């Protein structure tokens, strides 16, 4: 059972964020593994473990100058990584990203591709399904449980009303929600081992891709970025034992009570 | 270039098209364009409703035979683009299935997709609005390539209003053979029992976050919500921690709510949470940390411990009867 997990290195969401001059997210600071991706990595490790053979490959696109996030996935237990990195990729949209990831994934020929439902920085939420379409594979999004039985994947998929049990033949692309499994912390041994695990760095030329990437390939343009209408802060009281009554008075004033 | 044709993906619910679908139809008819809708399964039985909200034609993909909607609905739309010509834009609701349809369609048509859209305007072509950095900034964007532009729009971006139109003309639009891509099938559907109003429809939403300390304390949120005839929500932090199901999540990844009052309990106000609730008419926040960002948008804030304030609030509400 060979599994590819798509991961993304993102600016630390806890740090202040900004756009650069071309309205791209400023990624010049430290990059970390998107926490949303750790669930896919953990799920993949558990599925390979259960299958008794195979390995986990992480595939990513972005800057190769800082590989801490990818190394983190390797430290958790993934066997190897492919990082597509190219200056021409800056400003690439979701579909362009999917084209790049799909080409990289083809090199691994996996039984299963796992992704987060969306990244925590761009949150487009369409890339995994675009990857599936480009690879000619079925997809199941919003998995809250994933099991593999022979050549079939069984998923409990989140719905508006509850959940659906969905099955698909492998290979298949599955997106997992946060909380689907408890991601492990990398052990000291894992962190040391990750340093010598293979990370293949590819350019878009290596993948045979050209004009699909960058702002031209995106075929969309940011016209402006403006401050949103902000809400003014209202009253703030320190609880001195009468907070409950104060809340009730406020709810009465807006006629909820 | 005037906008002459807009297609809207309208999702069938049990007793009508989903509210977000009606919001998109309402917006689509403001551009003076011909509006057509695409639906599946029992959706065609709501042709009167689709027409009332602005669609003149309702393309019906029909039964999906247990397949997830993403692949067959996108295939049907690809066939429609081939037979009818491309519309200027295809509007799709942000939902589990809507995002699947958008992703499949984008790759099949080789057209980009703009997601998380919360506003649309006509500037000689559609201009989309996207909240960024927790909704503190608005990014405006447009497509620069060939039509159709694929636009995925969040719930409650527009109000749903009847336009008084007559029933839409139902036209069959089968998916055709979807091959390997359409192989994912639903085997069983589970409906989670819920009491009280739906999160997105409730006039009062009480949400809990990490400040509750542990999963067992979430009962304070559900009890308060029940006493106020409201719905209980949650921050991403406690959904990720497995305390409450994903369906309760309010925020960027979860649901968008616009209640009369939103009561945030032990929620610091991470940017991704704010996007899902900043449209609330009134916001009440209870948090131990006086510097928590949630206080910057709260109409009424209590600096205090939710584990002390909520039991008192529950007791006081019970005493009122």
How do the strands line up in the largest sheet of chain A?
A: 9-8-7-10-6-1-4-5-11
Distance between the termini of chain A: 58 Å
Mean model confidence by pLDDT of chain B: 94
With strands numbered from the N-terminus, the spatial order across the biggest sheet of chain B is 5-9-4-1-2-3-10
- Estimated structural class of chain A: alpha/beta
Roughly what fraction of the amino acids of chain A lie in strands? 25-35%
Extract low-pLDDT stretches of chain B: none
User: Superfamily at the CATH H level of the largest domain in chain B?
Assistant: HUPs
> What's the structural domain tally of chain A?
1
Which overall shape of chain A is indicated by the principal axes computed on the Cα atoms? Answer: globular
| Tally of structural domains of chain B | 2
Word description of this protein:
The complex is a heterodimer of chains A (257) and B (321). Chain A is an alpha/beta fold. Chain A has one domain: 3-Layer(aba) Sandwich (Rossmann fold), CATH 3.40.50.620. Helices cover 28% and strands 28% of the residues of chain A. Chain A contains seven helices and 13 strands. In chain A, helix 2 (68-76) links the parallel strand 4 (56-61) and strand 5 (80-84). In chain A, helix 2 crosses helix 5. The longest helix of chain A has 17 residues, at 35-51. Chain A starts with a strand and ends with a helix. The mean pLDDT of chain A is 92. By secondary structure, chain B is α/β, with parallel strands linked by helices. Chain B folds into two domains: 5-182, 3-Layer(aba) Sandwich (Rossmann fold); 204-320, Rossmann fold. Chain B is built from eight helices and 16 strands. Chain B has helices spanning 19-28, 47-52, 70-84, 96-109, 219-227, 236-240, 271-277, 306-320; strands at 5-9, 34-39, 57-60, 89-93, 113-117, 119-122, 126-132, 137-143, 149-153, 169-172, 185-191, 204-208, 231-234, 261-265, 282-287, 300-303. In chain B, the strands form three sheets. In chain B, strands 5-9-4-1-2-3-10 form a seven-stranded parallel beta sheet, sandwiched between helices. In chain B, strands 13-12-14-15-16 form a five-stranded parallel beta sheet. Chain B has a three-stranded antiparallel beta sheet with strand order 6-7-8, with no helix packed on it. Chain B is elongated and about 65 Å long. The model of chain B has no long low-confidence stretch (mean pLDDT 94). Chains A and B meet through helix 3, helix 4, strand 7, strand 9 and strand 12 of A and helix 3, helix 4, strand 5, strand 7 and strand 8 of B. Strand 12 (220-227) of chain A pairs antiparallel with strand 8 (137-143) of chain B.
